[in-house]
Amino acid sequence: MIITQKYIDGLTYKIIGCAIEVHKNLGPGLLESVYEKCFIYELGLQGLYCLSQQTIPIQYKDVTLDAELRYDVLVENLIVVELKSSDWIYPIYEAVLLTYMKMLAKPKGIIINFNCTNIFKEGQKTLVNEYYAALPKE
User: I need a surface site. Which of 2, 35, 97, 125 has the fewest CB within 10 A?
Assistant: First the structure.
């Protein structure tokens, strides 16, 4: 299968749907780790493959370092998802996600903040990069 922007956008829709389902059942106010476990379970129910809390190796000059840097969830080996339970989606969250996307060479990332009243309207932010732009549209 050829990975396209359309495919990744459809996957994004499913991922956000999973987050909405978790939020609908749990509501705001819990720890990020609780949402992560439920979110991963929901992704599995939707038939989506994911990895969680994997380390990201740091390439510094001529050496690869293990700095214990971890992403929250990687869906279908394409989309990095950072989960939050915060009062707002801060710019630093975006910067971190963009860095993870670059380090992992992934085309899309989603920040999902469960501490909100509506995931779709205020609780998510989707980011793309040059890897996404290089993909065919259809």
Answer: 2
